[in-house]
Please model this.
Amino acid sequence: MNKDFFLTNNLTNKKEKFIPINKHKIGMYVCGPTVYDDPHIGNARPLVIFDILFKVLKCKYGKDSVNYVRNITDVDDKIIKSAQEKKISISVLTKDIIKSFNDDCKFLNCDTPSEQPRATNHIDLMIKMVSELIAKGFAYESNNHIYFQVNKFNDYGKLSNKKIEDLIAGSRVEVSKNKKKPEDFVLWKPSINDEPFWESPWGKGRPGWHLECSAMSKFFLGKEFDIHGGGIDLLFPHHENEIAQSRCANDTKIFANYWVHNAFITMSNEKMAKSRGNILKIKDFRDKVNGQILRFALMSTHYKQPLDWNEKLLNNCKDTLEKWYSVYLPFKNVSKISDDMLLPLYDDLNTPGYIANLHKLFEKANSGDDNDKKMFVSACNFIGILNETKKGWLDLKTKKSLISEKDILKKIELRNKARESKDYKEADKVRDELLEKGVLIEDKDGKTSWKIK
Ligand SMILES: [Zn+2]
Model:
């Protein structure tokens, strides 16, 4: 599509036309999970939103033109604490959670990013970056810790629109007697007791959390790249600190050109918090609902708006998908999606606008021919829904498959032929056979539909 693509850039607080550095090699970095606990529904939102961004970029620039890097934080205070609480080793914990995370991504029908680097595989790059920051005078050593000196970087606070004085007044900074200034943040810290450690010029230690994204984005995407994304909670201090580290170590005027953040999820209008006990894990949905319902719910609100998660939302999404599956037909080749259809997504990933277009396309498919149905299913597939066959969609209700979708359709055809030749005995026999296998058929307006009872 030749239409321009627009994104809200939080660095400038404006919706801007997206102009890639190199349209054949678009770089996108999204902060991935810290693998200390099974991902929850709040973690699912950026997975789906940035997956849609990945899809739109691939559609516009070509499927091999986008390098999407999403890291895995596998060394962190939360991980050390969680492993201690669970009385398991860090490697067992991180392995389990990475598996759970990958299963969730599959469940939500997300494309696999181009790269999924683990922090612990890139500690050498982080040590190198800390050394550069010290050599250039942006960082200092104090009591085996290395800190970034925030007041040496003039653009600090530009992304989050924060002034250093406000940070200190709001106590958003970690207090430590080792720091020259309260706003300075840690790049490297000593490992104590049985904490994981790596040898460094400053003794046995481990990196501060922000450092890994600066080191790994540089390794995979270069010193300057196109899009940096993540949840809005990462904007400060994480992304602000990434910018400070990267631009000072790399001597650049920019780090990423476009900063894109998805808004929060609330639970029935309450903040999601461990203390409230309202944290819903993605894996707990796996045996209850089809992943497409979650995916659809997560894209039902524009990514910049808060999304309220509640039963009604899930039920509405389920009903819509149920209705849409009534015109589902399996196709070998998908249809090309029209520019008009795609327009909302090109306008700052307006997913509700795209869904509104899908509703219109459904009406056309419902009263139209197979070609209209193919158009509709292709447009659904584009954003990762209706990718399963109708039977796959229904299987989760019955938990067992007694008959394949292909055979159901064959039987219905057989029954229709019997009815056409007025052989009602045969028609009823086929209907009863299907019923025995748990398939209920309904005739309405001259059409036969089916569902698992
Ligand atoms: Zn990050």
